[in-house]
Amino acid sequence: MAILAEVVIDQVAPGLDRPFTYVVPDTFEEQVALGQWVEVPFGSRVLHGVITQLAAGDPAEGTKAIHAIVDRKPVVTPVLLEMAQWLSGRYLCYVSQALRSMVPASVRRRQSARPKMVWYRVVGARSGRPSTKQAMFEFVRDHGPVDRRTLLDQFNNAQQALRALVAEEALEVLTDPPQSPLPQEALHQLTAAQQAVLQTMESEPGRAWLLEGVTGSGKTEVYLALIEARVAAGRQALVLLPEIALTPQVLLRFRERFGTRVAVWHSGLGHGERRLIWEAVRDGRVSVVVGARSAVFLPFPRLGAIVVDEEHEPSYKQEEHPRYHAREAALWRGKREGVTVVLGSATPSVETRFWAEQGAIGHLRLPERAMGRSLPAVELVDMREELQKGNRQMFSHALTTALDEVLRRGEQAILFLNRRGYSTFVLCRACGQALQCPDCAVSLTYHQRDNRLVCHYCLKEQPLPKRCPECGSDKIRYFGAGTERVADEVGRLFPGTRVIRADRDTLTRPDDYAELYQNFLSGQADVLVGTQMIAKGMDFPRVTLVGVVAADTALHLPDYRAAERTFQLLVQAGGRSGRGDQAGRVVIQTYNPDHYAIFHAYRHDYAAFYQEEISFREQAHYPPYSDLWLLVLEGSEESDVKARADGVYRDLRAVWPNGEILGPAPAPLARIRGQYRYHLLLKSTHNDDLAVVLRTLQSQHRGVSITRDPYFLM
């Protein structure tokens, strides 16, 4: 008898999507364990893999032996091994792809863990005129010890100032993580409503909850109190945020509460930092992880709670393999490990609210803002009436007046438009031709600052032509508005107003958002103009006006979630107003004031919106009343792509004769980067029979992309 190990090879290929059996040599029998990273012979090569099963048995003839145990400590916990199998079955990825999501490349490749993580603490006195260096010293004095990444994030990568403070011996460098003392009792007094929510959670430990709270209701304080109790009991906690870079305030509050016991996990980490944090989590040296979606796969040995903040955000859905949804993964892990899971949002996804209504998860509410603050007053402006009155500008009379009042009082405003650029398309008025990207079936967007046309899908740029490339006319005009034009309009109407833009064109570096946030918070600008990124998790006390320039931008997209996304964006954007001592106001401009998504957002009425939306979903058999599967085929020749799509349809219909299949048809974005695209959309009942069918189909038709519960139907 020998010990046999089942090993999943770290290779992504159809023939390798199964475990392979190896003999554990006698010299390794005392060391071998599930989840270890091992080196094994595979044909003529030597590859790496993860041990997924161990058993005693007689090896078949020719069974090879494990060459080496690369890491004595398992890189994947037993729970994560189960999770990899679940991901593979649910999202049709290879088990090796799931495991790669759980084990960072720096761990798989045994890359050096340098640069070493360091912390700074105050050791001397210092005073001086206001400067970055003085502000950095005071920050460490007030919050220290502080790790290097936090300092550089907070002060826009001011490495020279940091080096100077160390040279002056005002700060001391620590190479071992200082231990913050745990608070003996809550540092912040919860409101009665927050306390009631927390007590209900604690009365049923291990349950999943929807925490539905209006913007500014104090959901984060509930998260902090829950996690504080878990950490005091020696457990760990995971907090998922949609996009770490866009939520600096939330991150800072966790660091203030838990100090150096907090680690941050996101895609911007270097290989060395990623490995250090991963090992600290695995070894139990980190109490709280605040991270983006992939943090759900970290190897916590003592997990006690999971929080998914802004659970409705689409960025929790991964578009590449494994195409998982972090909310679903968090719920699976919470149930498997018996820990409390909190899904928080002011505008819950329809699916989550449905699960709560059905009793699958608990439902808790915070219906009022904390500190006695009221929700902002909302004004709905019908832009059709503005046109009838002769106003053809992008700002209505109501929004212009509101902006004028706010600026006169020395307060701040946010203007929201979910379109980048200056003009959304450029048209020849002689022949009617819109200038399109040569590789994508989309119009080019005009960016005035660079005087260039940009495709927002393939990022190809070209100079603005003086004449139409189709007919030669010089009657080229700009139509539609983006954030760049909105910022220009503010400057035209209110000369001298300080305006900051926040979109993917202006925020290109990882530290750009933190810098913008600090600048606006400190009053260095009067108006912030931005896309949907400014609707996420920001708290500016001096903002008393939010203007939604065009509420209809996403309303008529060919996507069943269009109404839901519109409602969520309007409520979340409006929720940035009136979060300080002054009352807030929201002005929503629309050409569809009677649409239920816009009307209910105007009334802050999530329940009414949900009732209309869930009725539509039931009638159309969309989630949560079905599972949706999106099949995408791409290629350089449209006729070939269509023929392949027809072949997939025929084979699918043969084994799924009564299933609901839409298509095949050209995708709404029929060509991207020179590739023609065809879609098939499948609706199935809530079982995994179709998953088995599609896995077989996937092996028969190479190059078919399959996404379960897609968030991008274009």
UniProtKB/TrEMBL annotation:
InterPro entries to which the protein is assigned, alphabetical: DEAD/DEAH_box_helicase_dom, Helicase_ATP-bd, Helicase_C-like, P-loop_NTPase, PriA, PriA_3primeBD, PriA_3primeBD_sf, PriA_C
UniProt keyword Oxidoreductase present: no
Residues at which Zn(2+) 2 binds: 437, 440, 455, 458
Domain Helicase C-terminal, residue spans: 463-622
Hydrolase as UniProt keyword: yes
Taxonomic placement: Bacteria, Bacillati, Bacillota, Clostridia, Eubacteriales
Binding positions (Zn(2+) 1): 428, 431, 468, 471
Cofactor note as given: Binds 2 zinc ions per subunit.
Entry protein name: Replication restart protein PriA
Organism of this sequence: Sulfobacillus harzensis
Description of how the protein assembles with itself and partners: Component of the replication restart primosome.
Gene3D superfamilies with a match to the protein in the record: P-loop containing nucleotide triphosphate hydrolases, PriA, 3(prime) DNA-binding domain
